Amino acid sequence: MTTMRLGVPAVTLWSGEPRTGELVLRRSEPDAFRPGRVVGIGYADENAADRDEMGVLILRHHQAPGTGTARLKLVHPARHHRSMAGELCQGCGGEPDRTAAGTLWLMPREEGAPTRWPEGAVVEHPPICLPCALRSRAACPEGRRCGWAAVRVGDSDLWGVAGPVYDGGRPQEIAHDRLSYDNPRLGWIAASRWLRTLWDCTPVDLDDEARRAAAAGRNERAAVR
Question: What's the whole-model pTM score?
């Protein structure tokens, strides 16, 4: 796919994708010297797909994109994880646009951000391909309100997760937070979003990028003929 499904980013949560799964307390394995202790939360019917590569619990939702109404301010946790962990396009779920200058990212500008932003920033936006970037720029109200930042990113690292954090004595939600992967509270979060740190950022103009891509396509077709 090269464009957003139904005009909605692939990572978007739909109203027909409710939360599911019973949360329970998770205990460590007992041994000869100590009984098992509560170490976090999990699902009563948990399977390997319920945790990310660092062992963090993924907030479980049904998978039914296109069902009901698009909840454009929310993301589907499993699809967001797939895009952020695999560095896939947030729009179509395919490969993002990559050049020698780096991978394309498109984000609403942050109010009051430092001059070098997003260099070194921790962001929740996955990368994007050029067709989806052009479509997002035209369609997204948040970007129209704040202005867009298009950058080529030379390197990025998974930093951590965001989502509801639960009470240490029972599986009851108490707050939303952002936790780095070295945070000792990771066992108590059900991640709904993943966060990356962006490095070696070069601001670009999307219209210039589109013109270069079109010219490269014309040259490639001419070479084939």
Answer: 0.89
Average pLDDT (20-45) is: 80
- Per the listing, tokens 């779920």 go with 93
Q: Among the listed ranges 31-40, 45-54, 63-72, 136-145, which one has the minimum average pLDDT value?
A: 31-40
The three-state DSSP-derived secondary structure of the chain is CCCCHHHCCCCEEECCCCECCCEEEEECCCCCCCCCCEEEEEECCCCHHHECCCCCEECCECCCCCCCCEEEEEECHHHHHHHHHHCCCCCCCCCCCEECCEEEEEEECCCCCCCCCCCCCEECCCCCCHHHHHHHHHHCHHHHHHCEEEEEEEEEEEEEEEEEEECCCCCCEEEEEEEECCCCCHHHEEECEEEEEEEEEEECCHHHHHHHHHHHHHHHHHHHC
pLDDT at 76 over 60: yes
